[in-house]
Amino acid sequence: MRTNEEVVREAYRLAEGSVLDGDGFRALFTEDGAFNDMPNSMSFRGDEIPQALMGFASVFPDVHRELLAVHALGAVVAVELRIQGTHLGGFPTPAGEIPPTGNRIDVPTADLWHLRDGKIERFDCYNTANVLLAQIGVKPDFDSAIKAAKAAAAGA
């Protein structure tokens, strides 16, 4: 049986833009396993898990994850990495799709993988979404946030 670190390293290999094997990635998880995109409060369970890979790869088809440090701590594998790629596909948002910019991303990330009996039970991805958005040209709209907060306070 593979070690927990070997399982996690295989998951990263299968998620590379040059490989992109959603079914193979899914097979590394327990039947009820979960992929949690923490900054975006999104969770993919079971057979939804490949959707997370395919969705990201549709925006950044050359996605690469540069592993900086991997620490296997019993049933948990902690990974420091950088998610890299080129913004070549539409980026979906609640307000509409951000068209491709051709900008490169290099996003600091920390991942926690929880394994049970050689399978991934839970994968928590903590990417710095604000860095990713800035790198594709999305600037915070502080004016709208201040106006909304003032309006909410006035109505309270």
Automatic annotation (TrEMBL):
Transmembrane segments: none annotated. It comes from the Bacteria. Gene3D superfamilies: 3.10.450.50. InterPro entries: NTF2-like_dom_sf (IPR032710), SnoaL-like (IPR037401). Residues 21-122 form the SnoaL-like domain. This is Ester cyclase. It comes from Micromonospora parva.
